[in-house]
Write a structure and sequence with these properties.
120 residues, mainly alpha, 5 helices, elongated, PD-DEXK-like_domain, YhcG N-terminal domain-containing protein, YhcG_N
C-alpha cells in the first residue's frame, strides 16, 4: 500500500528555515531576472529611439526587425512587431529623468506596459 506524502507540523517547524531561504532565493532570482529584462528593454528602446530620430529607421523597419529576430534568435519570445514600439515608448517616457528612470526598472515589464497604456 502506498503512503500519502503528508507534511506534519513537526516537519514544517523543523524545516521552516530551509524552506524560507529557498523561497527568498527564488524571489530574489525572479526579481533579478525581471530587472535585467526591463533594463534590456530600456537599452533596446534607446537604440530604436535614436535611429528613428535620426531618420535611419521608419515604421517598416520594426516589421523587418521582428522578422530578423524571429529568424536568427529562435529561442527568444516577445519580439513581435509591436514590442520594439513599446520599448521605444518606454525609453522615451523615462529617459529624460534619471531619478524616475530607475524606478520602472523595478517593476515587471507587464506592469510598465499597463502604466504606459494608461498615460499619453
Amino acid at each position: 500500500m502506498t503512503q500519502l506524502n503528508t507534511t506534519s507540523t513537526a516537519d514544517e517547524d523543523r524545516f521552516a528555515e530551509i524552506v524560507q531561504i529557498i523561497e527568498l532565493t527564488r524571489l530574489q532570482t525572479v526579481l533579478g531576472v525581471n530587472s535585467a529584462l526591463v533594463k534590456h528593454y530600456f537599452q533596446l528602446g534607446a537604440i530604436i529611439s535614436r535611429r528613428v530620430a535620426a531618420a535611419e529607421w521608419g515604421d517598416g523597419v520594426m516589421t523587418q526587425l521582428a522578422a530578423y529576430i524571429a529568424r536568427t534568435q529562435r529561442v527568444l519570445r516577445g519580439f513581435t512587431r509591436a514590442n520594439p514600439f513599446r520599448m521605444r515608448q518606454f525609453y522615451e517616457a523615462y529617459a529624460h529623468d534619471q531619478k524616475v528612470s530607475a524606478l520602472p526598472r523595478q517593476l515587471p515589464w507587464t506592469h510598465n506596459l499597463i502604466i504606459l497604456s494608461q498615460n499619453k
